[in-house]
Structure formats: structure tokens, C-alpha cells
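Journal club side-thread
Mid-discussion, someone asked how the predicted structure for our own chain would compare to the paper's figures. Pasting it here so we can look after the session.
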Amino acid sequence: MDRIKHSRRWLGGALALAVGAGLSVTGMAGTAQAADINVAKNAGFESGLSSWTCSGGSGVNVSSPVRTGASALKATPGGLDNARCSQTVAVKPNSTYQLSAWTQGGYAYLGASGTGTTDVSTWTPGGGSGWSQLSTSFRTGASTTSVTVYTHGWYGTSAYHVDDVSVFGPDGGGGQDPDPVVPPAPTGLALGTATSSSIALNWGAANGATGYNVYRDGAKVQSVTGTSATVTGLTANTSYQFQVTATNSAGESPKSTSVTGKTSDGPISPDPVVPKHAVTGYWQNFNNGATVQKLRDVQNAYDIIAVAFADATSTPGELTFNLSPALGYANEAEFKADIAAKKAAGKSVIISVGGEIGNVTVNSDASATAFANSAYALMQKYGFNGIDVDLEHGINSTYLTKALRQLSAKAGPRMVLTMAPQTIDMQSTSTEYFKLALNVKDILTVVNMQNYNSGAMLGCDGKVYSLGSVDFLTALACIQLENGLDPSQVGIGVPASTRGAGSGYVSPTVVNNALDCLARGTNCGTFKPAKTYPNIRGAMTWSTNWDATAGNAWSNSVGAHVKALP
């Protein structure tokens, strides 16, 4: 609490001037007067209501609003009680005192009685939102050694607040409040109850403290007046380090010894159900010239959002994820919140493994277990509800099957599992990718083959089809549809724009015609399947970012068309 300080000019100043001017001075012997002080005790209410008496229990010590320090007085009139709060101060006879206080709120009076001369008071009608100062002065009588100073409100009006009372004048023998010193660091910091989003803390009181600051991982997150706090807004299943400091008007103590607490896993919310006909989009965790998106910006047409990509570690099979700073997220918590919001809206958000330049090697039991454990850890940490396999540098179907089954056992039956093989990987059931898809058919959501960056390929009728046509899309999808995959596990993967891939872009109309050909037997090219597949899952694109760059033309057209499939 600030203390009002004044300097008092006295005869010594005149004496110095006279001597400096070469004058002789006589009869000046005597004792110099002490400096004036604030004779009010607990003038800032930092020690509760100590030294003060309030009528009818009308006054309380509050931590807000305060002008300085950590506390102030709040007094509330009621009935015939005007909420008078007073204290008796020691004064010196025949002396002048400046009386002042800062007030806020309702009507507020400030006065002094028992002065031995003329008692004084002043008042304000209040009503403002800030602090205003009341001030007056009084002179004590020849034999007056104590005076009562007081504040009060007015009957039936609202509460008033008071801070920084000053009764400034000669010391009457009672002295003044000692200047505060910085308190010591709090001791006994301990953890209380932890939930999935909060951790409670408590500690021992520090001598002279009027408040405490709470630090989480080195950053101040809360200020309190008591010896306990609950830190909220935390992430589930996450460890945090906490420290506290003690404060008063003199400053802040060193930090306490730290404690580490961990939030609980919390309730597990059910994952979204992938709709019968679904649109999958890859979301870029990097900036390559396409529109940069936060997850919240991903177009609503996408039912499955594949976060591209997880990263490999030096341990074979092990995955990690590094959020790109290029996306503008303030922290991981904001990213996690976006995932949770998408899932709450019924979207699946999954982590994709691989890509054009990414590779994860799973070729042993140890690497399969490392893959499953690390993938599940990412799902738990970020809230992903599945995984996408987009490994483009060769796979071992035996061990990757083991890895995916281990992951499924951990994640449960609602885990979303998608794949994005290249065209060459799905030409026959003897390829490693096709074998993998069939091995995990019972837990597989959809295979979205990449119909781009490819040469001409064989269709299910044994004919060769060139990239970029309805026939290419339908005849190659037919291979999967007729060789073991359920129609609900087959999707058509294409680029969202001409810039999304080196080759293979087709207009949304071509994609929609291919879906109609497979689902309804209409809008086919020269290739027409022997039967229809009304339960075909839908379509996929690389990427939601390139789609946004092209004005969302792909998702606006294909998204609506997929939803309208039978």
C-alpha cells in the first residue's frame, strides 16, 4: 500500500541560507522538529480491519476494488446504520493535521471529531467508477492528545469503498505503520485435487504477505489473496510445474520450491461416426504456397480430416508430431481445441503417416509395437480419432498389419483407419498395400487411392486407361471393388486443383460423373462396370488448402454430390 509522504520545511533551511550569505545568527540554539508522519494505523486496510471499528458489522476488507496494495475497505449502510468506520489516532496538541482518503462507490463522508477545536468533515455523493480523494484539515486543542477520524456513508444508499487514509502531521507518540519489507518465499506448496482441466494448489502463509502470484511452467497465471488457488484451462493427461510467490507493497518474494502436477485423463467422449458417404481431405501442417489454414478453417464439406503429417523419430516405427509455426497457432492447446471442435461437429480428425517425402519403417515386431504405441499416444495427446496410412516408399504388410491391429486394440472399434495408396499399389491383390488392406478389412474405414501423379494403368477389365478421365477413375476403382474390399471401403482420390499435384487433376464434374457411374450406373465413359456399388464411400482430395486456394470449388461441388449418393 502506498504511503503518502511529505517533506516539512523548517528553520534549518533559513539558517543555512543565512550562514551562506555571511550573516551572523544568534539565539538559534534548539532541537529541530521531527518530520511529519501519517499517524493513522492500517491506513490502507492491508491488515484487514485492524485498528478500525465499523458500526453494526457494516465494514469488510475486500481485494477489489483497491487503489493501491491488495486491500481496501467496503462499508454498506443499512436501515438506520450509516456504516461508520473509525479509529482513534494519537496527536500532538496545538498542531495542524491534513486529513484525506480515497473513496469510490456511494455517498462517502470523511471527518475528525474530538479535535479540541473545530471538528471537521467533508463528503462526496460518489457515483463514479474511479477513485476520488476527499481532503480537509483540522487543528488540535491545547490539551488534545487523541482524535477520532471516521468515514461513513448515507442511510439507504449503496456501499462505499475507502483506501489510503492519511492523517498527516506531527507524531503524537503513537508512531506510524512500519514500512513493509518484501515477504519471504512461501513454503509448503502442495498439490490438491486434479481434474482433466485443472489442478488445485495450497501453501503456507508468508509473513507480511498481502497476496500471492501463481506460476505455471515459469509464467504467472493467477494472483490471489489467500493461500490456495485452482489453476484451470489445462490439457488432459499433461504434466505442469507450479511455483508461488508472496507479494506486498514492498515487492515480490523469490519463487517457492516447485511442484509438478498432472491432469487426469478425463471422460472420454465418443468419437464421431463416419457417415455412409464421406468426403476426406488432407490438411497441410506446413506452408507450400497453398492457403494456410487452421483446422477450424477447414471447409465443412469434409467428413474426415487427415492431418498431414506425423514425423518419424530415430526409433524404427515410432511417430511424433510437430505443429508447424507457419500456421499461426499460439500454442498446442489452441490446436487441440480446434480438433475437439471439429469432432464435436461430427468430423473425424486423424493423423496421417507418410506422404511424398515422409517415411516410417515398420519391418519387425519391435517397430510394429513402437508404431502402435506412439500412434496411440498422439491420439491421446491431441484427440485424433484415427490414423491414415500414406506410406509411398514401400511397406511390409505383415508387420504393418500387426501395428494397426495393436493400435486398434488400444483405440477401440470406432477408430478411423484410412489408406491412400498410389495407383501402382492397387493393381492386384499381390501388392503389399492391397494385402494390407485385405488383412485389416474388418477395421478398415476407406481406401482412397491417389488417382494422380501416375501413368496409364490397367482397369478391372484388363484394358489400359489414361490418367485424367472418368474411365481411369472408375475402371481402377473397380479393381478394389471386385477383389475383396467392400464398396463402403472404396473412395476416389484426386487433387483439389491443378496446383495440388503434378498430374491427374480433373474437374469436379468428372469426379461426380465417376461416382454416379459406380453408384448408379449413369454418366459413365467408355467403361461401365457390370454392376453398381451404391454404398461406395465417397471421394478424397489433396488438399483442403489447395481447395481453399481454388475458391473451394472442389468441396462445394463434390461435397454436395457425395452427400446425395444413394
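Post-session note: Residues 277 and 537 are 5 Å apart (CA to CA).
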